[in-house]
Amino acid sequence: MGDYLYKKEVEYVPFQSRVWAKASLLVYLMGIQFIILLVIALALNLPFVLIALPVVAIGLGANYIIFWRRMRYFLQGIQISQNKTVHLDLYLKDENQRIQLPLHYFQIKFQRTGGKGRYILLRFYNQQQLLGFQYDFKVWNHDSLAEVFTAIKAIKEEELTKQEKRMLKKGFFG
Fold first, then answer.
1. CB 73 within 8 A of CB 88
2. Residue 137 per-residue DSSP state
3. What CATH class has 4-12+73-168?
4. Average pLDDT score over residue span 139-160
5. Where are the domains of the chain?
6. Residue 111: how many other CB atoms lie within 10 Å
7. Distance CA 106, CA 131 (A)
8. How many CA atoms lie within 13 A of 41 on its CB side?
9. Which among 11, 50, 88, 103 has most CB atoms closer than 10 A?
10. d(CA 23, CA 158)
11. Residue 140's pLDDT is what?
12. d(CA 49, CA 157)
């Protein structure tokens, strides 16, 4: 590690690529639903089926916005130097924030969100102020997010709570 107590870096993924990677399947499926409803309405001369088209479009838009909000932050790297300074290469959309703060101000939280804890999330704080977050995405899977969380807790000499230990367990029912 050399000059760092901890260092983890990943390849940067542009904002639109992150959003599209998460939302593409949903866009395709809802697009197919839209086309099927349109064909049924026109082929069978059922104009009341056209009422469902805006519902599908609204559902598609709402889900795309959810993925857009989740993917707006991207952690490219985190380093903790020997002098206990945290360096975050945290992107907000495509803009690198390059955050530096003393380790004793830095807080990190590991969370499971969504049904049955399907989504893993790391939140980064400067004392109580949210700096950003990283959802599980490609390289940032459960194992790598858990590794960052436990390494930082160890460097800060903070014990894991029972709830944190339970959340770190990998599995569908966590």
1. no
2. B
3. mainly beta
4. 94
5. 4-12+73-168, 15-69
6. 15
7. 10
8. 13
9. 88
10. 37
11. 93
12. 61
Taking only the tens place, the pLDDT of each residue in 86-145 is: 999 999 999 999 999 999 999 999 988 765 556 789 999 999 999 999 999 889 998 999
Between the CA atoms of 100, 155, 7 and 139, what dihedral angle is there, to the nearest 10 degrees? -100
Tracing tokens 């916005």 back to the chain, one arrives at: 65
Contacts of 30 (CB under 8 A, 6+ apart): 56, 59, 60, 63
**Separation of alpha carbons 108 and 154, rounded Å:** 12
pLDDT in the model for residue 172: 47
Phi, psi of 166 (to 5 degrees): -65, -40
**Cα separation of 46 and 38, whole Å?**
10
d(CA 160, CA 166): 10
pLDDT of the residue at 158: 93
pLDDT, one tens digit per residue, over 11-65 is 999 999 999 998 888 889 988 988 998 898 889 888 888 888 888 889 888 888 9
**Which residues are CB-neighbours of 173 under 8 A, at least 6 positions away?**
116, 117
40 exposed, middle or buried (CB, 10 Å; 0-12, 13-18, 19+)? middle
